[in-house]
Amino acid sequence: MSGGSSVDRVASALLYEGYLLYPYRRSALKNRQRFNFGVIYPREYSEALRGGEPCEMRTECLVEGSSEAELDVTVRFLHLFERTAEPGELAWHGAIEREVTLRVERSVLRGAPRSLRFGFPAADAPGRQMGLTGRVELAAQEAQPGVDRVRVAISNLTPMDDTAMASRDEVMLRSLVSTHTILRTAGGEFLSLTDPPAGVKGTAAACENIGTWPVLAGENGARDTVLSSPIIVPDFPGIAPESPGDFFDGTEMDEMLSLRILTLTDEEKREMAESDERARELLARTEAFEEQHLRRMHGVLREIRSLEAP
User: Fold this and answer.
1) Is the model more confident about 120 or about 188?
2) What is the mean pLDDT of residues 138-153?
3) Residue 188 needs a FRET pair 20 to 30 A away by CA distance; which of 159, 204, 219, 239 works?
4) Radius of gyration of the chain from Cα atoms?
5) CB 67 within 8 A of CB 107
6) Strand (E) or helix (H) holding 182
7) Cα separation values, 26 from 87, 104, 270, Å
8) What's the pTM value of the predicted model, to 2 decimals?
9) How many CB atoms lie within 10 A of CB 117?
């Protein structure tokens, strides 16, 4: 990963978690039938399954300070497309990053929720891409003196027909994938839901989060940003400085994945490079490693603390 704040780097890593899995080839079953995080399905599809798949994601978090303080809300997700396949080739879904933003004062939200409807049109390049339609609703109410509960609800309103519902691939092309939310405030401070202050524990427990979990993000100790992700992480998540970049497969170690990529056959590497531009970049980066790169990933100790007697 490169550039951007620590929040943006972590958010980008989460955005593409599970996008590709080792061995990073389209012929691998787990890459043709991916398990995606943070999927918001079309409402019609969800209702047809009687709520079996979510058509909404909801974040609730706590913020204190001046009610005149502004809230900046950014919703990010992947918009899938189906690459054009030659006869005999396997179908493959790529992705384009999408972003929806809102900015509003908390005092305004207390009076009435704000709603933003968004849409991204269908396209034929870089592959067949269906249109997406959705809505972001932002609301705030005083939960206790000096503390507001902020709610961000994201809904998928993309229309579906019976034909599209018959295929998982067609449904995914109409879904918001790897959805997450970043909230920022100036003039206020967010409160941790993972480890809430003593005076707000009951209020924090009353927050209802659906399909996501908000944590404090940014520099350790800062309270101006919340990252709400479908992948549970602790307050102030970060990228290990030893990590050379995204491997997309967070259940494995960077060192092990690097070594496994280096042991692929020439034919396997060719297929990896042809599968996806992100796979191609990963392969090129790994093959360029020198010995010191692998040594850096081999092991590190952090946060060693002595235990006090009871």
Assistant:
1) 120
2) 94
3) 239
4) 21
5) yes
6) strand 177-191
7) 15, 43, 11
8) 0.89
9) 12
Q: How many CB atoms lie within 10 A of CB 306?
A: 4
Neighbouring residues of 146: CB distance < 8 A, sequence distance ≥ 6 = 64, 65
Contact yes or no for 55/43 (Cβ under 8 A): yes
Extract the tokens encoding 152. Answer: 């961000």
Query: Who has greater pLDDT, 310 or 67?
Result: 67
Q: What mean pLDDT comes out for the span 22-34? A: 86
Query: Which residues are registered as beta bridge partners of 61?
Result: 150
Distances (CA, A) of 20 to 30, 148, 157, 214, 310: 9, 39, 27, 25, 46
CB-count exposure of residue 269 (10 Å: 0-12, 13-18, 19+): buried
d(CA 68, CA 158): 35
Mean pLDDT of the chain: 88
Q: Comparing C-alpha atoms, which of 215, 218, 208, 145 is closest to residue 180?
A: 215
Kindly report the number of other CB atoms within 10 A of residue 157's CB atom.
15
Label each residue of 239-260 as H, E or C: CCCCCCCCCCCCCCCHHHHHHH
| Cβ–Cβ < 8 Å for 38, 172 | no
Distance between CA atoms of residues 25 and 31, nearest Å: 7
Q: By the 8 A CB rule, do 237 and 224 touch?
A: no
Taking the C-alpha atoms of 270, 272, 276 and 279 in order, what is their torsion angle to the nearest 10 degrees? -120
Degrees to nearest 5, angle at CA 18 with 17 and 22: 120
Which of 168, 105, 102 minimizes the C-alpha distance to 135?
A: 102
H or E element at residue 10 = helix 6-15
Rounded Cα distance, 105 and 69, in Å = 6
> Model confidence over 29-85: pLDDT tens digits?
888 887 889 999 999 999 988 778 999 999 999 999 887 788 999 999 999 999 876
Q: Are 175 and 192 in contact (CB under 8 A)?
A: no
